[in-house]
Specification:
With 382 residues, the chain is an all-alpha fold. It has 13 helices and no strands. The longest helix has 35 residues.
């Protein structure tokens, strides 16, 4: 069964890689011409993918801190896996946003010509520090165990925890400070980004541990059950915050604050929220984790549903906030494909995203082959 799944996995990866290569060629050959975003909706699928992958990275890293900083023995065996996941998903996030910027060759200008009042510049600097810290911590994690190595890992993890919180909360703040976009302009956004990061990152680790762990023994089952409980608790907390974010403005009923929410809940793409996020990405996993608490396979699929479909949450952050014109009727003032508030990702955008996904899967496959990701499973509480 495992061999058959492996063959299918390679086939899927090959298809994604080929399609992705076409998308990358188009991006370099035609620039942004084949993308569907325009002047009114300047951010699209790639920006949503960027904050999605960044969330996975921050969530995975913060869970690794439970091992290296807070010394949770029951999770000791996933420390390396969490760090590798954090590095790969961060790299995927940076590649996603690199394809989105206009002059891709100028990304390094932020280091040579800094604007210290730019929140985006501060965010990039924190990414750089976080990425370097991850690489050093990852190098240490694969060294033979020693007291000095453990102390260094604990120190780096202690520095990395506030850094991860700052940079991903900073992504939420980057949206929240845009006063002209009332859909984003809420103090809950930095907290929502952090809770979403923990939820999606924890779910991704649950899926990998449950479905791809090499030794499916009793200790593995206890580890999966512990991760299931953590993921379930994080998901419920994230849904509680989401309920607060949605219900309070709707209760107030001010059109200025509710147009974006109503577009998300009842607009042309209502199914992204109700079906992909709420039903398939939340209710079904909750049912699987509660109804089958000892079933490793079902826990793995629950984690996969949460992790993959959390992309719908990120799309519902980016698009509805931009799809409501700042001035009523602005989208009808000039008839032009680039001056419309309606946005659907083009095939080209999906092809480029396929490349990013193939790149990440290839990196993870290589790390599984050449690195010992799975440490000896520690005893988890029953």
């Amino acid at each position: 069964m495992s061999e058959r799944c492996g063959k299918w996995g390679w086939r899927v990866w090959g298809i994604l890689a080929i399609l992705g290569a076409i998308g990358v060629f188009q991006r370099f050959a035609f620039g942004h011409q084949l993308a569907a975003y325009g002047s009114l909706v300047p951010w699209g699928l790639w920006v949503a993918a960027y904050i999605y992958f960044v969330g996975l990275s921050a969530g995975a890293f913060l869970l690794s801190s439970l091992v290296y900083v807070f010394k949770v023995k029951a999770l000791e065996s996933i420390g390396r896996l969490a760090l590798v996941t954090a590095v790969i998903t961060l790299f995927m996030a940076l590649v996603s946003i690199w394809f989105d910027i206009g002059h891709m060759e100028r990304f390094w200008y932020v280091f040579l010509r800094p604007n210290f009042r730019s929140m985006m510049a501060w965010m990039i600097w924190m990414y750089t520090a976080y990425f370097l810290l991850l690489l050093v911590e990852l190098r240490l994690a694969f060294q033979p165990g020693s007291l000095k190595r453990d102390r260094l890992l604990s120190l780096l993890g202690s520095v990395g925890v506030p850094l991860a919180i700052a940079f991903h909360g900073g992504v939420g703040a980057l949206f929240a400070v845009v006063g002209a976009r009332p859909y984003w302009h809420t103090g809950l956004f930095p907290i929502l980004f952090l809770s979403g990061a923990l939820t999606s990152g924890g779910a991704l680790l649950l899926a990998v541990v449950a479905l791809r762990w090499p030794e499916k023994d009793e200790s593995h089952g206890r580890l999966v059950r512990l991760l299931s409980k953590i993921t379930l608790g994080l998901l419920l907390f994230d849904l509680l915050l989401e309920w607060a974010e949605v219900s309070v403005p709707l209760w107030g009923g001010t059109a200025y604050h509710t147009e974006g929410l109503k577009l998300m809940l009842f607009g042309p793409f209502w199914w992204v929220f109700w079906i992909f996020h709420l039903f398939l990405g939340s209710l079904v996993p909750i049912w699987l984790l509660v109804r089958f608490p000892t079933d490793t396979q079902k826990a793995g699929w629950a984690g996969a549903l949460i992790a993959v479909l959390f992309m719908s949450v990120r799309l519902n952050i980016v698009i509805p906030g931009l799809a409501v014109p700042i001035l009523p009727g602005l989208d009808q003032a000039v008839l032009n494909p680039r001056l419309t508030a309606s946005y659907v990702p083009s095939l080209h955008e999906w092809l480029v995203l396929a490349f990013v996904v193939a790149l990440g899967l290839g990196m993870f496959g290589a790390s599984r082959k050449f690195l010992n990701l799975y440490e000896k499973t520690a005893e988890a509480p029953r």
